[in-house]
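This part of the workshop introduces the protein records we will be handling. A record pairs a protein's sequence with a compact description of its fold. Backbone structure tokens are a discrete shorthand for how the chain folds in space. The question running through the whole workshop is how a given chain folds. The record below serves as our worked example for the rest of this section.
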Amino acid sequence: MYSKKSDVFCFGMLLLSLVTGKKYYGLSKIMSSIDTIMSRIRNLPINLIVDPTILAEAEVNAEAVLHIILKCLRDNAEERPIMLDVSKQLTRIEKGDFISNEANHNDASSSSNIGCPSKKL
């Protein structure tokens, strides 16, 4: 069933594709590999996740974007942020005035408040 929260999930997959440079096709394939995807984002060094072109050329806080992706891909739809919050956080990241409200990638904050590490890459 489609909802605003499923749209957030799909947007998270789109962001993931853009940031990693990898294409993710088919909802059933995505859903079967989502745990692996989430684990990689949480546990691997950022240079092994993010497309090297982005790391080399973009002045973007890739770690903060990855954290937003984690929130968008939460298994429980009710724990996902709303698109307005995602948009606001991406705008803050783009402007470079994003302030962290979480110390790590534990992904434990409420869905209405997206917090990300502020390390700039």
About this structure: The helical segments are 4-20, 27-43, 52-57, 62-72, 83-95. Residues 100-121 have pLDDT under 50 and may be disordered. The two ends are 37 Å apart (CA to CA). Residues 4-20 form the longest helix (17 residues).
